[in-house]
């Protein structure tokens, strides 16, 4: 499995989480799933209702509007993203505990180091973590 992420959408995601720093930024990711390839078509920035550097809660009204738009565009809701302002881009214990959707891909963008690091993960049974390759296009 590989995720193809357009550079422009990566920049949009990066700018959003940098704007939210030192709190976690979060959002939803939509695109097209085909065999062993996922192409990201849209990144939707969301409000972190928690306004916290350690966790996030997306605004349910925003989520509902995004899901409706994704369906209208004929895309798949691929998953979500959030930032780790001060920790590496790997699922925390809380991230794993809250990973209820086993079909979702969880994108984590770390701002811990000078160079941001984006990684994507599949999380099964709230504990089995598999990293998925991201290719910027």
From TrEMBL:
<feature type="domain" description="MPN">
    <location>
        <begin position="3"/>
        <end position="129"/>
    </location>
</feature>
<keyword id="KW-0378">Hydrolase</keyword>
<dbReference type="Pfam" id="PF14464">
    <property type="entry name" value="Prok-JAB"/>
</dbReference>
<keyword id="KW-0645">Protease</keyword>
<dbReference type="GO" id="GO:0008270">
    <property type="term" value="F:zinc ion binding"/>
</dbReference>
<dbReference type="InterPro" id="IPR028090">
    <property type="entry name" value="JAB_dom_prok"/>
</dbReference>
<dbReference type="InterPro" id="IPR037518">
    <property type="entry name" value="MPN"/>
</dbReference>
<keyword id="KW-0647">Proteasome</keyword>
<keyword id="KW-0479">Metal-binding</keyword>
<dbReference type="GO" id="GO:0008235">
    <property type="term" value="F:metalloexopeptidase activity"/>
</dbReference>
<dbReference type="GO" id="GO:0006508">
    <property type="term" value="P:proteolysis"/>
</dbReference>
<keyword id="KW-0482">Metalloprotease</keyword>
<dbReference type="InterPro" id="IPR000555">
    <property type="entry name" value="JAMM/MPN+_dom"/>
</dbReference>
<protein>
    <submittedName>
        <fullName>Proteasome lid subunit RPN8/RPN11</fullName>
    </submittedName>
</protein>
<keyword id="KW-0862">Zinc</keyword>
<dbReference type="InterPro" id="IPR051929">
    <property type="entry name" value="VirAsm_ModProt"/>
</dbReference>
<dbReference type="GO" id="GO:0000502">
    <property type="term" value="C:proteasome complex"/>
</dbReference>
């Amino acid at each position: 499995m590989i995720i193809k992420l357009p550079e422009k959408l990566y920049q949009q995601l990066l700018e959003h989480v940098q704007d939210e720093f030192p709190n976690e930024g979060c959002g939803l990711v939509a695109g097209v799933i085909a065999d062993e390839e996922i192409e990201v078509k849209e990144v939707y920035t969301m409000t972190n209702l928690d306004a916290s550097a350690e966790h996030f809660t997306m605004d349910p009204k925003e989520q509902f509007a995004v899901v409706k738009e994704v369906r209208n565009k004929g895309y798949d809701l691929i998953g979500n993203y959030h930032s780790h302002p001060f920790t590496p881009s790997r699922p925390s214990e809380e991230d794993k505990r809250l990973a209820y959707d086993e079909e979702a891909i969880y994108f984590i963008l770390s701002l811990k180091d000078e160079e941001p690091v984006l990684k994507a993960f599949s999380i099964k049974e709230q504990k089995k973590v598999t990293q998925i390759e991201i290719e910027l296009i």
